[in-house]
Each structure stands twice: as C-alpha cells, then as structure tokens.
Amino acid sequence: MQIIHADIVYSENSKQLAVHRDSYVAVEGGRVKYIWSEVPEEYSSVPVTDHGSDVLIPAFSDLHVHAPQYPNRGFGTDLLLEDWLEQITFPMEARYADPEFAKLAYDAFVDHLIAEGTMHACVYGTVHTEATSYLIERMDKKGIKGFAGKIGMDRSAREDLLESPEKALRETEAFLEKYSGNRNTKPILTPRFAPTCTGELINGLGRLGKKYNTGMQTHLVESLWEAEQARLLFPECSCDIEIYERAGLMDNGPVIGGHFIFPSEDDIHIMQKYDCYAAHCPDATVSVIAGIMPAGALLDRGIRIGLGTDISAGHHVGVYTQVGRAVQLSKLKNFYEPDGNNTISFPEAFWMATKQSGQLFGDTGSLEPGAVFDALVIKDLSDAAVKLTPEQKVERFCYAGTKEDIAARYMDGEEIPDGTDD
Ligand SMILES: [Zn+2]
Predict the structure, then answer these.
(1) What spacing in Å lies between the alpha carbon of 207 and ligand 1's midpoint?
(2) Is 331 within the bounds of a domain?
(3) Cα(289) to centroid of ligand 1, in Å?
(4) CA 394 to centroid of ligand 1, rounded, Å
(5) pLDDT for 422
(6) 422 domain residue, yes or no
(7) Are 188 and 66 found together in one domain?
(8) How far is the CA of 378 from the centre of ligand 1 (A)?
(9) Which of 86, 181, 300, 384 has its CA 20 to 30 A from that of 171?
C-alpha cells in the first residue's frame, strides 16, 4: 500500500465534485482503497508521499484524436472542413506510408499525450497498416488505456490514401487478430466517415465487428457538408448513423461518434438505443468544423458525452483545455441559438473529461474507492493574496494551466515520468 496526501477532487456525479481538502488517498494493487482525512493508527507505518496543498485529480480521457495529424497542430485551421482535409490533413496523412516518419511522429505524439495528463484515448491512425501497428504498439507499451484504429477509406480522397475494400478489410482483419489481446490499447474499427467509405467497405467492417466483437469510432454529423454527403451517398438511410447501424457496427463494443453537432431525431434515437458516446471537441468546433454541439440538451436526453482534442482540427494536446472551452461554447450556443437548456457547468465539463469518459476504459476517471489509480497532481495555482479552494485549483488549471503545472503522474498506482522517458 502507498498513501498520498493532497487536496483530492473528482466527480461525484455529473453535477457535483467530490472534494476532500487536506486528505489522504490509500492505493493498493493499482486501485484506490480508502480516502481519509487522517491516516488511521493501524496504517501509521505506511510511508506517505506528501503533495502539500497541490490537488490530486483523475487523469484525463481523450475520446477523439488523430495521431497522424500531430505534426499539423496549430495551423491551417482558418479553413473549413472539406478544404482543410484536402490541403492540410490528407497531404500529412500520406507521409505515413514511410514507417520511419511514422515512428518519429508517433513517439512524440504518445509522449506528449502523457505529458499533458491524458492516460486514456480513442485514437485514429491512417490507412497505413505498418504505421498504425507501430502506433498501437507504442500506446500499449506506454500504458495508455484505450483504442487505436487503422482508418477505413476507399473513396473521395487522394489516390495514395485509398485502399480497395478487399485490401482494407484483409488488413483490418489482420490488425484485429494481432492486437485484440493487447493489455492496454485495443484495436477499434475506424471507418473515417460516410463520405469516404463505400457501402462494401462499411458492410465488411460490420462483419469484422461481429466476428471479433470490436467496437467502432467514426465522425458523426460533424458538419452540414458531411451530413449532406452521407445522405446523398447512402440514400436508403434516413440519417448518418443508420449507415453504421444497417452495417451491424453498433452493438459489438463501444461506439464513439466524433462531434455529433447536427444530429437529427433519428440520429439521437440510434445513439440512445446503443448507449454510444459522442465526442465533443470544442477547439475543432471553433476551427474547421464551424458548428456547436448542443451539449446541454443532449445530456438532458441521456446521451453520453466525453471530450476530445481532435488534433489537428483542434490544436492543443491537453484535454483539460477543452473542459473550460466546452463551458464557453455552451454559453455561445445558448446566446446565438437558444434552444432548450444548452449551458453546462464546470463540474459537468470536468465530469465529461474524467468520470463519464473513463467508463469506456474500465474503472478509470475517478478517485472513489475501487477506481483504477490513474491520477495527476496539479500544482496549487493560488495567488499569494488569495488562496484557492480545492475545486478552484482544478478549475484554474483547466482554464489557465499548462503541462508544467502537472507536478506528478500516476498510472495504475505507480508514479510515472512526464512521458519523455522509455
Ligand atoms: Zn476527427
């Protein structure tokens, strides 16, 4: 057993933070065992790691991130989705045909995730099997719990990023066979989105999903252009998600739909039916996508929502930056498009990025007894003149912090380096 002292904050539920000021967490077997305000006499011989007035929080989960676009972060985002894909994204993704390039980029990406406090993630690769194999091996080795997928794409992109459906399905199946037994990072089916996939590919992925009991990540109603393209290319379907439902992709494991900004009633019903996750990516929303998820209204309807960085439509690798941004966007949504309850609170946004999304990766995203101890120690960002409460320390970090404000990282109960060591 080990005991850690700090202020302790995690989500009690979607509306409320659990706050243990100046308290102790006892960790055993990689999980939280107890939280105490004083160490009981019988444990007085166990050494205590003292983080003083710093605050201990759960590590973050990124539900939507494109590893190959990591070298593109922070530019090109004055374009809109269709042009951005052609001019910025696809030229970069084509470079992953070179395994040496992929290794350099993916090593840096995985290290950066951990440095920013992200220990759980749903990650997109490219169509390249060798590069995506390196990515999932690297994530698994570094202990990142989550999913990584070889992208499925067989139309409407540049030639060197397209595969025939036969090759895509054959190599995807080999990828599933090879990595389904991974300890931390599992494979996931990853049709990019409906406009870049034929029915043959999507239906084939549905068969693989059934055979290997594998879930799916994709982009869902992310822009009006994407939703319109999906309807044109799959006229037999009444909405974007029905394309995947008809292919049998919805009930083989977790389904994570990126963005979910312009859902129809049919889209919402299918999301509810299969208990899917929507990945809300605020930075991407104000950059290349140009639409705001009705997050408050969707939460009211029971849709599960986590946060994503969507590198590189979003530009910042730390999910914590998206917590504050999600609150800001909900207020803009309410001002410009008032339509029911759309504002969300800071505790709700923090819950999305930790406890709610952590359920995808096992018992993570919380510090309540029984939870896997994936956690961060955030420096006390109080001013000399004004001391912050524990919950204010967390809020300030999410709005104004950087990775340098993360004083320590714990994964499965063990303290780990900042991500840059092997
Ligand atoms: Zn995306």
Answers:
(1) 24
(2) yes
(3) 10
(4) 27
(5) 53
(6) no
(7) yes
(8) 29
(9) 86
Residues 6+ apart with CB under 8 A from 148: 67, 123, 124, 125, 132, 135, 136, 139, 185, 186, 187, 188
Could you tell me the distance, in angstroms and rounded to a whole number, from the CA of residue 188 to the centre of ligand 1?
15
Residue 247's pLDDT is: 97
Instruction: Kindly state whether residues 196 and 125 are assigned to the same domain.
Output: yes
Task: Kindly state whether residues 265 and 405 are assigned to the same domain.
Answer: no
Please tell me whether residue 207 adopts helix, strand or coil conformation. helix
Measure 374 CA to ligand 1 centroid, in angstroms: 25
Give CA–CA dist 344/334, Å, rounded: 10
d(CA 123, ligand 1 centre) in Å? 9
Q: Which of 295, 321, 294, 292 is nearest to 309 (CA)?
A: 321
Q: What domain range includes position 380?
A: 2-59+365-416
Q: Give tens-digit pLDDT for 1-18.
A: 999 999 999 999 999 999
pLDDT band per the 50, 70, 90 thresholds, residue 227: confident
Cα 86 to ligand 1 centre (Å): 14
- The string of DSSP letters for 220-261 reads ES-SHHHHHHHHHH-TT-SSHHHHHHHTT-SSSS-EEEEE--
Contact 193, 261 (CB under 8 A): no
| Tens-place pLDDT, residues 276-325 | 999 999 999 999 887 899 999 999 999 999 999 999 999 999 999 999 99
64 Cα: distance to centroid of ligand 1 (angstroms): 6
Question: pTM for the complete prediction?
Answer: 0.97
Using CA atoms, how far apart are residues 345 and 296, in angstroms rounded to an integer? Answer: 9
Secondary structure (3-state) at 367: coil
- Residues whose CB falls within 8 Å of the CB of residue 284, separated by 6 or more in sequence, listed in order: 259, 308, 309, 310, 313, 314
Residues 157 and 258 in one domain: yes
